[in-house]
Amino acid sequence: MSLQFLADGLFAGALIGLGAVGLTLTYSILRFSNFTHGDFISWGAYLALGTVGALTGWIGPAARFMPFSFGWPLIVGGLLAMALTGLLALLLDAALFKPLRRTGHGIVMVIASFGASLALRAMLEFLFTSEPAYFSRAIQIAIPVGLGIRVTPDQAAMMGLALVVVIAMHLLLTRTHIGRSMRAVSENPALARVVGIDVAAVIRATWLIGGALACVSGIMLGLTVQIRPQMGFDLLLPLFAAAILGGIGSVWGAIIGGLIVGVAEAGAVQLIGSEYRSAVAFVLLIAMLLVRPRGLFGVREG
Amino acid sequence: MTGVPALVAHGIEAGYEPGLPIVKGASVTVGRGEIVVLLGPNGAGKSTLMKAIAGLVPIARGTVTLAGAEITQTAAHRMVRLGLAFVPQTENVFTTMSVEENLVLAGHVAPASVRAARLAAMLELFPDLARQRGLAAGRLSGGQRQMLAVARALMIEPHVLMLDEPSAGLSPKLVRDVFAKLVEIRASGVTILMVEQNARAALAIADRAYILADGRNRHEGSAAALAADPDIAEHYLGLGGADASVVGRSAP
What we know:
heterodimer, A: mainly alpha, ABC transporter involved in vitamin B12 uptake, BtuC, two-stranded antiparallel ribbon, 2 strands, B: alpha/beta, Rossmann fold, four-stranded antiparallel β-sheet, 10 strands, disordered C terminus, ABC_transporter-like_ATP-bd (chain B), BCAA_Transport_ATP-bd_LivF (chain B)
């Protein structure tokens, strides 16, 4: 049996994990399941496609960083797209979620996010059609790394990026005031106000960060697979599975949950066939909810 | 009381739902450096009045002034910057954060140059907390948790410290410890307003007290006079803490 599924699974898992980090943060601080998170991923990929196109159109084609398929326009464009995706999330909050928060019903927020998800996806299809798009059509040669496993340079770079992002998020949450404030609001919003935290500002920061992280997973997905308006929505189930597996609110939990889901999916494809791929996340999600609802690293239930 | 009072709440009408006031025109004045205690039966509106002053419950009528400046309906998170600290009765520390993180988080409203000194001062004032500074606050005992909540409130060097039943759920020895600490804090120049069910212990350290019933002022006076008044004692102070509320509810 080939061990290639491990590498593919870990890569898919890192991507799912990054998306789940954003989801777990918005879930724990805003207290609802945000179905638009998947569409932030798609929008992030398309926004990066747009910024990269604009940059190369403006300055001219740039050399690739060999052996990778991308050059500096993707780095700069990616950073711009992260900011733009964050702003998109912020805009959606101001237009939709903020007025609904006053009524205080979690289920209304969930349904509203489902509607917004449909609208965001339809807009992408309208603007870009449902034909897949690509950052680069350069052919990547997968390099053998031992044990019969092959990894493309882009995949290796994205794994490194995922690790950097997770460490940065960990430091943000444990070492900075805004990070501690986010943890405070997620545990006890009333007490957070009492200690002088502006909860509205924390919510804005959460959307910005959640959107930016979604954009990173969109770019990872776009770079290694393809860019489609459906891409983020199709990831939603694995994202929720990863966030719940790891424990809502836990950044490391989300990334480890993502890796577990990724490897389990890739393993299932190899063992029982690709038609059961999406069932794996579902089974993991339900099993976790039955056995340990607070997840691997969750601090408390409910 | 001399000069401008530290805190005045005048004619406060407040409640969680519009048109359903829990506090129905209560007034409280706290002089600079005083310890004032709010007493009364369960449901009298003591805690709601305190939360309304802190900006956590909407005020329909009335005004709140802090050292002469009106602060009615200021957002709760801004109250801290004005020097008004509040310690809720329950869930008053962040259990998933360490003792030190709780203090650092609260101290952030202070200028960066003084934060480290304040943290050091709090750890000196509360040696128990200094020993457990790395421990998650959720693993502290009830008494230590209460001390952390008070220390957290003091990180902003408040002019006025408001406490909602600081003795709730604590053993008699811990109640004495907490109250002794409050006296020590007052001696450092902090004005204190607190709600208490443990009336006798609270009157022992307070300068003055207000007794509320049904959201309105019922009695007020010096702590010593109220404690000595047999009528008050019978209706509101009870023998311990628990039965005071039962007697109080049937009072006219």
